[in-house]
Amino acid sequence: MLTVKNQSYMSTKMFHVQMLRTQLLYVRAYLFTCRSDAGQKLRKLVWPREHLYEHVHLYSVFDLQLVASGQLVSKVRYAVTFGRDHVTHCEVCSVRGFHCELCSDNEVLYPFQLGNTYTCGVCYGVYHSSCARGRKECPRCVRRAARKEHPGQENT
Ligand SMILES: [Zn+2]
Ligand SMILES: [Zn+2]
Ligand SMILES: [Zn+2]
């Protein structure tokens, strides 16, 4: 297994696969905590390459061949599409979306919408990428820090 993290070394195909794997990771977080059989189905779609979402930067030599031939992209894209479809239609998963606190828009955001969302790496809060751009602080993290400093004041 090889770890591929540095994006400047990535080919376009590789970069594409990496984006999809990141989406797969988020999708999986929803499906594996859903009571339906969707998590099981996702696992079957990805099997026997669970490292695709368990260690998103890890590639076997065989994976790299599949990246080159384009097969890995279609496999992962298929799993991601399945997962996204489930989340938006499942009554348990769909309510676990986020609202952007930076603009208070009513639109429901999910972390796997990589194209137009930004996910905080610390608290996993999700914002519009356009709202998060240029911001240094995440409001959820700021609230958490404030709670730590002033325990007891929960309603901030
Ligand atoms: Zn669900
Ligand atoms: Zn926003
Ligand atoms: Zn945060």
TrEMBL record:
GO terms for molecular function: zinc ion binding. It holds the Pfam family RH_dom. Coiled coil: none annotated. Residues 5-148 form the Rubicon Homology domain. InterPro entries: DEF8, RH_dom. Keywords: Metal-binding, Repeat, Zinc, Zinc-finger. This is Pleckstrin y domain-containing family M member 3. It comes from Portunus trituberculatus (Swimming crab).
